[in-house]
Structures are given as C-alpha cells and as structure tokens.
Amino acid sequence: MFDGSVRERVSESDKKEQLRAAVYARTSSKNQEFGYSLDAQVRRSVDRCESLGWEVRFVYRDGAESGKDTDRPMFQKMLSAAEQQVFDVIVFWKLDRFSRSLMHAVQLESELREHDVNLYSVTEQIDTTSATGRFNFRNIASAAEFERDMIRQRTKMGLNELAVERKWPNDSAPLGYELDPEGRLSIVEDEKKLVIEIFELYIEERSMPEVARLLNERGHRTQAGGKWSPRAVGDILRNEIYRGDYDVADVSEHVPEYQIVDDATFEEVVSIRHRFQRDEASKSSMSDPRKERAIERMREMYRGYRSGNSTRGNPCS
C-alpha cells in the first residue's frame, strides 16, 4: 500500500514536469490599485510554474477587462489555443482573475477537460492536474452548488413570507405606487392619473409608439426621469398589478386596494394588444408560395387593367 502510494506520487510528479503551461492574467482599474498588476500576476504565476518544473509556453494578458463574462480578447485567444491542445494547463494568480465565480470556473473546467487542459491557481486550492486535485475541485464545486441552492431556497422562503402579507418584493414600486413603512404598495394619486392616461391613450391611439410620443410631447417622464419609449409603455400596459392582481412567489390574489385601472379598461387593452399580435402573426405566417400567387394575381389584374384601357382608348377599335 505504502509503496504503491509512493509510486503514484512519483508518477504524478513526473507528469507535472512535462506539462506545458499558459499563464493568464487580468486586471481592472480597481484591482490595479491593490497591487494585482498584470506584471505581478504573471511574475508570480511564472515563478510557480518554474518551481513545479512546468514550461511556460504562452502568457495571456487582459488589461482593464471585466470578469463578468468570457468576452475578453486574450481570454478568447487562450480558449481557442486550448482547443488546439498547444498547452496542458492554465495557470492564474487567483480564481477571480480567471472566472467570475467558482461555478463559472466549474463550467469552464468541464469544457477545457474535453481538450485535456487543466486549471491551476497560485493562491487557492485549485489544481486539476492530478487525480487528487480534481477530486478536491469537485468537492469545492459541490459545496458552492449547495450554498447556491441554500441561498435560492432562503430567497424563496423570504419572498413567500412577504407575499403572505401582500408586501412588494423589492424597494422599487411600480409607477403609480410607493411603499408604505410595512413594505406594502400605496397608491400615489398623481402617478395614478398618469397610469390611467396611458391606458386610455392606448385604447384611443392603438399604438405604443404613438402613446410614447404623446406622453413625451405632454412633458411626462418615466420613473427614472427619462423619455417614454414604446417598450416602456408596453411594460405599463402588461403589468397586471394595475388591475389589482398581485402575483409574487406562490401567492396569486386580487388585492382591491392595489387596483388603479378597472377591469373593463384593462381587458380592452389586452384585446387590442392581442389583436395586433394576431395580425402580425397572420402576416408573417403566409407561406412564400402564397405570397408569390398573390403577387401574380395582382400582376394579372394590372395587365388586364392596362389592356382594357388601351382598347378603349384606340380610335380604330
């Protein structure tokens, strides 16, 4: 047992000595203030590679790039190189330099593993170049997934508690309302008038762009103080809280004190919106052969019209 363990460790060590490494470094302006410069990250990563006997083949640097996604120039080049299997391991100073989160790193690790490319963090216990390291990485990922599920569950429980008391789930009340000290919606009369005006304008104009134009022309502004757009108008018209329908978490109930627009007006707006949606769908659903036949019929009618006019206008006929 002991000899076998020693042979396994030696084998893993021999394997590491042969690894080809790519160093990745990323900074944002904020991180540079705390000493995590590109040069510092690269230097410490290269030092670690040398201590492990790894050959640094590539160095990828993304300066002042956000870690929220993978749309970073050098990061994308590195992923493309990984697909070509020109290196065996990606070395980075800290996980947040490489990925936005541990779960994101797990996803990337799974994709890189298909190309036999591993991950290694200089400052954290992330090392997928060995069986033991991969096992530890899976455990860390499982713990992170468990924590995320717990947070999601606690969030849902919190929303349910709010919903039982018909409280609003965030600090931003919809147009027409404000939050009272207990977190419930309270109607603001001036904004209520604007909401009703939007519904009535749409019934009259039957056009969200036209409603937005009229609102801006009349000097009305959105909650954020900006100009109205067709999308902003649509958000108001589709929000069922204005008819008093409260739908949060597992609670769906009519709350009369939240109602701003009467049912008949709301239903008429829904009917108009759906009618235009059906009209658009009908237009787009016409097959190409049908369109061609319709065009050909129009051409035939036009030719017949021209021919008839030509005959009537000929003095020799």
Give a quick set of tags describing it.
alpha/beta, two-stranded antiparallel ribbon, 317 residues, Hect, E3 ligase catalytic domain fold, 57% helix, 2 domains, Rossmann fold, 8 strands
Structure description:
With 317 residues, the protein is α/β, with parallel strands linked by helices. 57% of the residues lie in helices and 12% in strands. The protein has helices spanning 2-17, 29-32, 38-52, 73-83, 95-98, 102-113, 131-164, 189-205, 208-217, 230-238, 263-285, 288-312, and strands at residues 20-26, 55-62, 89-92, 118-121, 177-179, 185-187, 245-248, 251-254. The strands form 3 sheets. A 4-stranded parallel beta sheet has the order 2-1-3-4, with helices on both faces. A two-stranded antiparallel ribbon has the order 5-6. A two-stranded antiparallel ribbon has the order 7-8. A hairpin with a 5-residue loop joins strand 5 and strand 6 (185-187). Helix 8 (189-205) crosses helix 9 and helix 9 (208-217) crosses helix 10 (230-238). The longest helix has 34 residues, at 131-164. Residues 174-279 form the Recombinase domain. GO terms for molecular function: DNA binding; DNA strand exchange activity. InterPro entries: DNA_bind_recomb_sf, DNA_bind_recombinase_dom, Resolv_N, Resolvase-like_N_sf, SSR_resolvase. Pfam families: Recombinase (PF07508), Resolvase (PF00239).
Q: Main sheet?
A: 4 strands, parallel
User: Count the helices. How many?
Assistant: 12
| Shape descriptor | elongated
Oligomeric organization of the protein chains? single chain
Strand order of the largest sheet: 2-1-3-4
In percent, how helical is the residue content? 55-70%
CATH fold topology of the largest domain: Rossmann fold
Sequence of secondary-structure elements = HEHHEHEHHEHEEHHHEEHH
Count structural domains. Answer: 2
Structural class, judged by helices and strands?
A: alpha/beta
Strand content: 5-15%
Q: Indicate the CATH class of the largest domain.
A: Alpha Beta
Annotated CATH homologous superfamily of the largest domain: Resolvase, N-terminal catalytic domain
CATH architecture annotation name of the largest domain = 3-Layer(aba) Sandwich
Radius of gyration over all CA atoms, rounded: 32 Å
Number of strands: 8
Q: Alpha-carbon distance between the termini? A: 114 Å
